[in-house]
Structure formats: structure tokens, C-alpha cells
Amino acid sequence: MSDTSVVSNSIDIEAIRAQFPILHQQVNGKPLVYFDNAATNQKPLSVINALKHHYEADNANIHRGIHTLAERSTTAFEDTRKAVQAFINANEAEEIIFTKGTTESINLVASSWGRKFLNEGDEIIVSGLEHHSNIVPWQLIAEEKGAKVKAIPVLENGDLDIPAFSNLLSDQTKMVAVNHASNSLGTINPVREIIEMAHAAGAKVLIDGAQASSHLIIDVQALNADFYALSAHKMYGPTGVGILYGKRDLLEKMPPYQGGGEMIKEVSFDGTSFNDIPYKFEAGTPNIADVVAFKAAIDFINELGKENIAAHEAELLSYATKALKEIEGLKIVGEAQEKVSVVSFTVEDIHHFDLGMWMDAKGVAVRTGHHCTQPLMDRFCIEGTIRASFSVYNTKAEIDTFIAALKDVIKKFKP
Ligand code: PLP
Known about the structure:
The protein is of the alpha/beta class. It contains 14 helices and 19 strands. The protein is globular, with a radius of gyration of 22 Å. The structure holds pyridoxal-5'-phosphate (PLP). The site of pyridoxal-5'-phosphate has 12 residues, from helix 4.
């Protein structure tokens, strides 16, 4: 059994766990072990309290009222925009557009940029590691514009085949859309290199940062990304909120995504003129309270320090991977050179859903299935995997519990 009261890499895990009320409960009569963090991670009290405080003290619609509550609400909302700008090192706060999440951010670019800049015969390159939300929006716009979607192949270890990517690039390539880290296998992609190669071919690049945001340092200027998308709920923040980062000159050239209030300068029946960025892309009343609480999530990550979070999670990943490898009949899917804290595996002769259900009976929450990456599952000729993913509040003791539970469940099927 490993040490529970760890002070790991200058962060005190027990003090962190105390900030997450949801972790301190029994599920099916057993203490909860929450290893489904890649789907959504849990929220600290600071985020929960920010949400509560907004509705108890400041709630009003933003950007329109001149009364005190409207001003407070607007300031808090715009403070989150500035916090996101700093978090990803964008050049200006105006380059940050609030959306429902990564999915909506990618749809915004595919619809708005794609409708204006894609033509028949153009090509969009995604990768074999993508979440459906970074495939389907491109297929939809490609179909509409007569463009083609191509995919970078995935190597046996879960890394992208970069030489094959180089061969896919051509004068027809207009957009390259890849994730920073894979939700299914944990692979960290060499996005800086991918962006450089795509730019050399004259293409724009969108990075899906959904799985990178709580683990990796993001610097959109150093990366030279044209677009970057992320979701608050995968970084200790609320669901239903995310952002799209876009370079100013690109956002300014793009038509609005949706029409409505806030995104206009003037409306008449002779024509409508549109607001400046970011408001041009923020039609209607946004998810104000959750955007406000998102700032508390960013503060939580900043206070702990991304390097410290990453070091602790890397320790958990290597501890879990080593223990899993000792289990007979278990195969890890995806052993890329660089990974975020996600480990996917299959167990010979046992369906992943059965394993997941029995793990839940033991209080262990893991994800089972294709993880919205069916092309990737096809690549490995499997239907799905069991996925354990770790956040900063997880411990080696929880991994011990998970491994013991897994061994017990396997014994049920293969006595
Ligand atoms: N991209 C990746 C890599 C993801 O892991 C996810 C969610 O799991 C998404 C996109 C979609 O994010 P959301 O559902 O928050 O829009």
C-alpha cells in the first residue's frame, strides 16, 4: 500500500482533496475512487462558491445595464476573459470568445471560417486520434463546400505518423485540425512541429486543447496557433463553458456564427452591421455565472502551478501503468512517448462494459467504450477500452484500490 498523506512535488494532496466535497462519499458502499477525469474533472469549493456568490450577490445581464449589479456582473465576466488570455498567453483579451465548450468552438471555426474560406477541392487534415467533435464539424462543412477531409495515421504506440502527415500536406490543404493531447490514449502531439509544417504549406491550424488545458502549459503565441479551443469543465471549472482563441486578423475576417443580440452594432431592415470581436461571435445572453466561476478554476490551477500538477499526474500515470502491466491478459492501448495522465487498456476475453460495471460496484469510476473516437478504435481493431484518467487530487493509494478491484473483477470472469 502506498502513502496516502502525500506531499508530492511541493503540493499537498490531502489539502487539495479537502477542497473537493464530491470526493468524500461512498459509492455502492465503497469510498469513491474517481478516475474519469478525462471526461470531466471535479470542482473545488472555490468554483462552487463563485457560482453561488454570483447568483446570491451579482446576477444581472451583462454589457447592457448601467446599474450596479449589471456593472459587477460585466466586470466579473470580462475578468474571466482576461484570466483566459493570460492562461494561454493570447496577445489580447479580444481574441478570446466564450462558447459552450470545445465542441462549439470547433463548430464555430468550421462554420464561419470554413464557409468563407473553403472551396471545392480544398483539403482539411485532421488526425486519427481526434475526438468526434474535431472530425464531424469538418465533415459537415467539407460536404457543403465540396472539400475533402483526410486523416493523419496513428502509429502502433499511439503517436501520430509525422512523415505521413508531411506527405498529406499540399497546396490543397487549407486547414489542419488536431488535438494537443488525445482523450483516448493520452498521446501528447507535437503541435508546435505540426503548426510549423502546416503553415509552411499555407494552411491554418486549429488545436483542440480539451485534454491539454489542465495538464500542459499553453502558449498560443509561442505555438503560433491560428485557433485554440478548450472546455472549462475539463479544468476544474463548470460545464457548459469554453473558449475559442483566434488570431485577431482571422477573427476579423470571419463572418458571424450566429445572429442575435450583442453581436450587432446597428440593426435596420436595410441591413445590419456587426459588433467588433469578440462580441461579434457571442450572440445572445451567455452562460454568465459559469463564465464567472471559470475564473476560480483558472486561479485554482495557477495557484497550484501547472508544473506541479503535471509532475504529480506523471507520477500517478507511471505508477498505474507499471501495476497494470503486471496483470495477465491486460493490454495497454497507447504507449506514446509523451502522455497526459490517461491510461487505456483492454482485458482479454472480458468486455470493457462488464469490467466498468463491476468496477463501479467497487466504487471505482472509470470510463468504458470508444470515448467518442471511433476511427481510433477501428485503427486498433477494438470496440472500446477501459480508460483511467487522473487529476491532481488523485493518489497512489487510490491506484492501489483500483488495481485490487480490477484484479478481483478479472478473477470473477476468469477464476
Ligand atoms: N476534444 C477532446 C480531445 C475531448 O476529450 C473532448 C471531450 O471529451 C472534446 C473535444 C469535446 O469537449 P466538450 O464536450 O467539452 O465540447
